[in-house]
Amino acid sequence: MSFSTHLALARSAVATGMWCTTAATGGFAAPATTGPVASAATAMAMASASGKAASAASPKAASSAAPEANPADGASIDAILHAAYDTISGPAGKQRDWNRFRSLFIPGARLIPTIPAKEGGFTTRVLTPEDYITHGDAFFAKNGFFEGEIARRTEEFGQIAQVFSTYESRHNADDAKPFERGINSFQLMNDGKRWWIVTIFWQGETPQSPIPKEYLSRGIADCRLEERRQESEVSIRRFSFCLLTPVS
To answer: pTM score, two decimals?
Structure first.
């Protein structure tokens, strides 16, 4: 997956006849869908309609259940975001580990790009992880793509978390400048054993919609979280010191 390469994936999708491109920017657009938002059912129906093309594009066919995840990938919010970016990044021709990619998502998860609409304004398209794999596999076979996080803002409550992850995308890992920046909005859930990706909802930066400064640096919540971690470590060290210090 490339959260920011909906334009490139659209070109790949056009080759299979599953999607048509929008205006000059060429985002996803479903030819048989009316209205500004394609439903999840519509997206899945289109994926099913691609039939053999989908199987050919993804050598590792999807199963009804997500492959077993590496425990380290779901151990923390930081770990699952790192895994998401890592699975889609690599040089042209490198086979992505799609089973690892699948294992990050809870059943029923969705990926939703925000894209320009033909009639003006913006719209969305709702994709499944399998939709992304179908077209991403063919695209990455010929194109290098590296995406990484440059800033993050996190909010947590109970078992859920919302992360604004600011990204940069490059064709080559050593490119001096990214060809795109944007924000990936991750919705995450912890089932008591691990973190899962529920939704990735994203938009690329444009001259009309530059990324605000507050999303180009660490958020207050993340700084406070780090402070709490450091305070906890200090408390543990102090407690250990007390246990080891003989009482006079």
So the answer is: 0.69
